[in-house]
Amino acid sequence: MKKFLFTILLLSAVVAHAQNCISTRYLDEVFTDVDESLGIQFGQADPYGLLTSQDLRMDIYMPAGDVLEKRPLIIYAFGGGFLIGLRNQPPIPQFCQHYARLGYVVASIDYRIGFTTTSSGSAERAVYRGVQDLRAAMRYLAQFSAGYGIDTSNIFLTGSSAGCFSALHSTFMVDAQRPQSTFGILLEPEDMECSDCSGNTYFNNDEIRPKGIINNWGAMLDTNFIDPIAFDNVPVISFHGTDDLIVPYNSGSPFSYPIFPSVQGSAPIHQRLENLGIMNQLVPLQGIGHEPWLTNASLLDTVYRYSQPFLYTIMQPQTSPIAGDVLVQVGDTRSYAVVGEVGSTYCWSVTNGTIVNENGNTIDVLWNTIGTGQVSVIEVSCIEVLGEEQTLAVEVVEPTGVNESALPFVAIYPNPASSHIILQLSERESAPVPFKVHDALGKMVLSASVPAHQQSISIDVAALPAGIYAITVQTTNNPTTFQWIKSQN
Question: Phi and psi of 358, rounded to 5°?
C-alpha cells in the first residue's frame, strides 16, 4: 500500500511539473493589466527648421505583476510621412498595451519630423533623422535595461509607414551607405554625421542590433542595403496593402510625387530577403490602401495574428540533443541528460517509463513497460519561451541475461542533420570504438572514434555537402552500418 501511495504521489508531481512548464506567454494575453511610464526623455537633438533642441521622449508599457527579470522589447515609431505624427496617436496605445499583455516591454518613441517637400535631399535627411532618433532610443533602453526588465538580446522594431522606414534603414543601412544629402544640401548645409552620433551618448554610442522587424507598410531607399552577411541576418515580417498609393507595395515615389526619392516597398524587400536566405514573411493585403488599420480595426488583428508567432519563433531557444541509453531492460533505471547544457530549465516527459529523479539537465528514468519508449525535453523557463522539443527513442526489452555491452546497438541522431550528429552507443566500452563515414560514391570523408569509457560523441558535419552517407561503427562484435542524411545548412 505504501508503494502504491508513493507511485501516485510521484506521478502527480510529474504531471504537475509538466503543467507548470506549459506557457502561452508571447502568444496570448497572459497579463490583465499594463503599467505605463509616459513621457520618459531618452535624448535631445536639433530638429528640422528650428534653432532650439528638441527633447525626445518615449512612453513605456510593461506587463503589470510580471516577475520575469528580462523581457523582450518592442520599439514602435509612429507614422506620418515624416511631416506629422505623435507617439500616442491611434492605434499606438492599443498596440503597445496588447503586446505588453503578451509579456513584452513596449516603447513608443518620438523622433524629429519635418522637411522641405520640394527637395528630394531634404526628404532623405528626414529619414536619416528618424534613423538617428530610433538608434538613440535603442541605446537608452539598452543602458537602462535592468530597470525596465529588458532582454537586450531580444529587441524588435516596428511602427507604421515612416516609422518602418526608420526601422528598416536603422537595421540595414550602414554609415558608408548613407545618402549624399546627409552630408549637406542647399538650405541644410550641416553634416548630419553618423547614425549613432545624435540624441544621446548612452551605451557608449554603440550600435544595438534588433532581433527582428515588424514592417507595417514601410519601404527602403535601396534593398541592396541588405547585405549577404551574417550581420544583416535580421528576420522581417511585412504587412502591406497591394493598392497602397502613399508608400508603394512594389517601387516608386511616395505619394506618387516624383520629387520624392524612389523607394522599394515590401514586395522587393521580401524578394531581397528571400534571395539572401533571411527568414521573412510577406503578408500582402489584397486591394487595400495605406495604413488600413485606421479605418478597418480587423486589420490590426491581422497584424497580431501573423506577427505574434513570427516573433515567438525567432525567440525560441534551440534545445540541445539528449544523451542516454537507447537499449534498456524492463526494471532498469538509467540517466538522460541534455548534451552540453547546464544551468537552463527543462520540461521532461517520458513514455514507457517513470521519471524518478530530476536534477537540472539530467533525469533518472525507471523503465517499466516493454516496447519503444521515448524521452522528450523542452528548454523552458516556465514563464518564458518554450524551446524546440528534442526526443530520444529508447527500446525497452525483456531481461535476457545477455551482456548488453556485447550488443552492436548504436543510435545516430538527428537524422537528417545539418550541423552535427550524436553517435550514441548502448553502453560505454573499455576501448575506443572507431567509426567511418563514407559518401554515396564510397569515398571515406571522415573517421574518428568514440573515446574509451564514453558513451557518445558529437560529430561536426557542417562542412559536408548535403547528401546520403553511410556510417560504419566497429562495435565489439561486427561492423554495423547506418544510413544518414546530411541536410542543407
Answer: -140, 130
Tell me whether residue 336 is exposed, middle or buried, using C-beta atoms within 10 angstroms of its C-beta: 0 to 12, 13 to 18, 19 or more: buried
> Does 386 lie in the same domain as 442?
no
Sign, CA torsion 213/89/246/193: negative
Burial degree of 34 (CB within 10 A; 0-12, 13-18, 19+): middle
Side-chain half-sphere of 234: how many Cα atoms within 13 Å? 27
Are 331 and 230 in the same domain? no
Q: Judge if the upstream peptide bond of residue 179 is cis by omega within 30 degrees of 0.
A: no
Which one is predicted more confidently, 405 or 291?
Answer: 291
**How many domains in the chain?**
3
In whole angstroms, what is the distance from residue 344 CA to residue 380 CA?
8
The region that residue 123 occupies, defined by phi over 0 for left and psi between -120 and 50 for alpha, beta otherwise, is alpha
Instruction: With respect to residue 26, please indicate whether it lies within any of the assigned structural domains.
Output: no
Helix, strand and coil content of the chain, in percent to the nearest 5, comes to 25, 35, 40
In b/e form, how buried is each residue of 271-305, taking b as 16+ CB within 10 angstroms?
A: ebbeeeeeebbbbebeebebbbbeeeeebbebbee
In the block, cell 520540461 appears at 347
| 421-450 tens-digit pLDDT | 888 887 788 888 898 888 877 788 998 988
pTM beyond 0.85: the answer is no
